[in-house]
Amino acid sequence: MSGGQNRMPGAPAPSGAAKAAGRDAGTVAPVITIDGPTASGKGTVAHRVATALGFGVLDSGALYRLTALAVLQCGVDPTDVVALEQVARTLQVVFHPNGVTLAGAEASDLIRQEHVGNLASRLAPNPGVRAALLERQRAFRRPPGLVADGRDMGTIVFPDAPLKIFLVADVRARAERRCKQLIEKGISANLDDLLRDMRERDARDMGRAVAPLVAAKDAHVVDSSNLTIDQTVQAILDLWSPARLDGG
Ligand code: DC
């Protein structure tokens, strides 16, 4: 376990964090946060844990990817910070059981393209973009509970979550998984290119000044390099009951 709390400019101080994280509106729903690097299996594991507990899911990376897709579709200059924040603030997003729409058009597959993910990673350090997406993410916190996956779920978005997971896996294992996923979807993929992109993205996500990818102080680190999805899900469910009993 490593790392600590990182606050973005304008984010609430830790003492007010629970309030700002959705606990003041009569919606004291528990949250399990799952943070980790790209292709660590967060998304699949989050869905499986949520299904097992009957909780909702927040795929926060999808919001950054949707922002990137909207930037590409609108022809916005990715270096124009004011325009980027405006795009993030005005995203018209609807999550549905099979994916997500952007401005009414199906976007589930489009946001999974590697170039969209890479642009999302390049836009994500922008404080205006992060601030624009913050309340949108917190609004997912509803009874009976939420499993939220991303980079800063445990540190910034839901700092009072009763169970925080930092899911890691060896970069080669992650690149191989991503390669297999893309090929299964009929998208061409090259392992060496993926490995290089993944290392670059990890460095960007961990090295940025604002809300970097880092384990919350109170996160449990789970290494899934040698675990199946079932084993990873079970490891998190095993941690959930004691975490809840501890006052979450
Ligand atoms: O989890 P993902 O690969 O779908 O996320 C795409 C990018 O979005 C990721 O490289 C960094 C950014 N992101 C972020 O900065 N904070 C989050 N909570 C989730 C994603």
Protein model, in words:
With 248 residues, the protein is of the alpha/beta class. The protein is built from ten helices and eight strands. It is globular. The two termini are 20 Å apart. Residues 1-26 have low confidence and may be disordered. 2'-deoxycytidine-5'-monophosphate is lined by residues 38, 60-61, 64-65, 117, 120-121, 124, 150-152, 201, 205.
Defining traits:
10 helices, alpha/beta, 248 residues, disordered N terminus, Rossmann fold, 5-stranded parallel beta sheet, binds 2'-deoxycytidine-5'-monophosphate
What can be said about this structure in brief?
The protein has 248 residues and is an alpha/beta fold. Helix content is 49%, strand content 14%.
Please render the helix and strand layout as text.
Layout (H helix, E strand, L loop, with lengths): L13 H10 L7 E5 L6 H12 L2 E4 H15 L6 H9 L3 E4 L2 E4 L2 E2 L7 H10 L3 H12 L7 E5 L2 H5 L5 E6 L2 H14 L6 H17 L12 E4 L5 H17 L3
Parallel strand pairs: 1-6, 1-7, 2-6, 7-8
Antiparallel strand pairs: 3-4, 4-5
Bound molecules: 2'-deoxycytidine-5'-monophosphate.
2'-deoxycytidine-5'-monophosphate binds next to helix 3, helix 5 and helix 9.
